[in-house]
Write a structure and sequence with these properties.
Blueprint: H1 2-8, H2 12-15, H3 23-33, H4 35-40, E1 57-61, E2 70-75, E3 78-84, E4 98-101, E5 115-118, H5 120-124, H6 127-131, E6 136-139, E7 161-163, E8 170-172, E9 175-177
Parallel strand pairs: 5-6
Antiparallel strand pairs: 1-2, 2-3, 3-4, 7-8, 8-9
């Protein structure tokens, strides 16, 4: 996201706000990793967004480490990952602190916060019971039709893409697409030094 903003500038929607924020870009990138894959796989009625009736994994961040090191991961309301220091320490914030799996990531605590996606035919055939599955099984939906790029949230653009067979230049809606190597990667090694 940072590389594209530096190279191509603010999105038109964000530029309207004076380019002071990246809200539209952020919503687009979050949609690419949450609701849009759920829509494409036919599981958006169960996961993919934080809504009543859906199973959600929530990630909490310290602002200085947003997008790099999660402080806490909740799955179905239970803690499955958190930052933790030395277990032998007598104070709550010993160092070094590392992300580690927590109690809800182990044993039978994990099954209630997970779903297994199967076809409706598998459910009709009583497959979960026959296999002795502990996780709840739910059917995928809308995978045979009705899915298109237009169904994607914040990512519905369909430019006409052309590739010059001689030069291998790529054009989207007639505009030459180029991408220079990155000079700076803002969310890289400096966040992972101990």
């Amino acid at each position: 996201a940072h590389k594209m903003k530096v190279q191509r500038g603010a999105l038109p929607e964000d530029a309207d706000a004076g380019g002071r924020n990246d809200n539209t870009r952020l919503k687009r990138y979050i949609a690419k990793t949450t609701i849009n894959p759920a829509i494409a796989h036919g599981i958006d009625s169960q996961v993919g967004s934080v809504e009543v009736g859906k199973l959600a994994d929530l990630v909490l961040w310290k602002p200085g480490f947003f997008g790099v090191k999660p402080e806490l991961v909740l799955k179905g309301g239970s803690i499955v990952w958190a930052q933790m220091g030395d277990a032998n320490a007598s104070i709550p914030t010993p160092g070094p602190v590392h992300g580690r799996p927590m109690f809800a990531a182990f044993g039978k605590a994990l099954a209630p916060s997970c779903l297994t996606f199967v076809s409706q035919a598998a459910l009709d055939d009583d497959l979960p019971r026959r296999l002795g599955l502990q996780r709840a099984c739910v059917p995928v939906q809308n995978t045979r039709g009705g899915i298109s790029k237009a169904a994607m949230k914040n990512n519905s653009a369909l430019p006409k893409v052309e590739v010059d067979p001689q030069t291998y230049e790529v054009f989207a809606d007639g505009e030459l697409l180029t991408c220079e190597p990155a000079d700076v990667l803002p969310m890289a090694q400096r966040y992972f030094l101990l």
